[in-house]
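Typical record was shown:
=====
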Amino acid sequence: MDNVKSAAGTQARPRNYKRRVRNILIHKPMQREFSLVLIALLIVSSLAIGFVIHNTIHEAVFGGSGFRFGKISPYEILSDVSYLLIMRVACVLFVTLIIIGLFGLFFLHRVAGPVYRFRQTFLKLNKGEVPPPIKLREGDFFEETATEINHYLDKLRTQDKTA
């Protein structure tokens, strides 16, 4: 499997497609924005969980939600506190999961839309048509790629007119 045979039957050079540390950031603006927003959402979620834990323990100690230290044993209080903590933390994590999921959906839409338009353009080019220029929405990624493809399409249109 080291060597790949070409269509002519000769041995071709092996393909080296190894990931390298310097190649991790392929599209820096997109990867930077996605990473920073995810980190920010996780920080906000962590702060919310800390707030929930603090308030639950505070309510248990100072009697904010019906906890009493009278005839109730500390084990019962800890049992109630741990149940409340589990439920509240689970709610915070569930809300965070929904927010991250929605963010991911909208973010990836800004990536998938341009890729879809590029594919449609390439399909038309393969059929021998010269498609109209690629137009991207505001905030979409790969504007520089669309500009380069549009330059190429302009060259094809001028070649068709002169031919």
